[in-house]
Predict the 3D structure of the following.
Amino acid sequence: MARTALPGRLTWRVARLIEARDETPTARTLVLDVPGWPGHLAGQHVDVRLTADDGYTAQRSYSIAAPADGDRVELTVQRVPDGEVSPYLTEVFSKGDPVEMRGPVGGWFVWRPADTAPVLLVAGGSGIVPLMAMVRARRAAGSRVPFRLIYSVRTPSDVYYADELRRRARDDGGLDVTYAYTRAVPEGWREPPRRLGVAAVNTAGWPPDLEPACFVCGPTGFVEAVADILVALGHDPRRVRTERFGPTAGPAESPTASTAESPEANPASAAKRPTASPTEGPTAEPAPGPKEARP
Amino acid sequence: MTDLYTDGNALAGPLREIFAVDVTAATSQCASCGQAGPVATLRVYDHAPGLVARCPGCEEVVLRLVRGPSAAWLDMRGAVFLRVPL
């Protein structure tokens, strides 16, 4: 399929792995070199495509985990059991290996360093990935905009970027980080495991009067419950931006107010949304993803 | 059943393949109920062949996109307009 290369047209590029870091036993950060990368905004994502020897292709969306840095693009991928793409990316994909990537895409769920409103970030499981890009972009740009991050995970071992978040909560002036554990808590934690509810969001978030920009990312049920909570607390729905991974199975769980039937929220931010197109074969993954399950 | 869908953010790549601008940040108005909002907030069902985006207000189909081997089919009969920030 020859395509005319028009400027601005989204095209596939070849990315190569230059470094990988394990974030949890099932999530891995991939640092890729993408020659000619045009740069991106915190919150944007990419589509990744794998092609088998027989020509079969599978495509997933993954949130970018770090702000623009030349040709480097960082993704964090949550392994989805029985997935078509994430097991390869988290277990097989090695330094120097190529993968097809296109992006950056998405212009709505983004934070720009020039923005001046206080920011509330609410992450469910792997939904932390695009929000971490915002936290990192804030520091990289020297922004003094106050940030609050509420991070819901199943257990302490499911926390991505754990050391870095601990360090940033101490060193990045104006960044507050609060955790909600839904299945198991650290020793000496102040309360038993519980889903994120109205009281916690009210306490750890911003008063609506401050008109904060709210970004919520995670499995669909989690996102909708948190968005409902924010609106109920008085936040203008237009200031609540959401990104859903879709169905999933993973570390995040639906908050208390959730009407979701699937309590297994998806970890995969990475695995956000599998975007299947007819030519690309079925997507077997339950998708989150920020996109294999997507995020 | 909320986890059966994702949202319009997932349309970013597939639509960016067709349009020169990001359409997910554009505002669309539902032809069925009149609700307007960012394309990124539509409910997207991606398990069928192609992508089906429904109005979060009334659940009617706003947009459908199918990518074939040599062409993309975009059905927007459910949208009154797209307002694209420029």
User: Anything to note?
Assistant: The beta strands of chain B are 6-7, 27-30, 36-38, 43-45, 51-54, 61-67, 72-75, 79-83. Residues 2-83 of chain B form one domain.
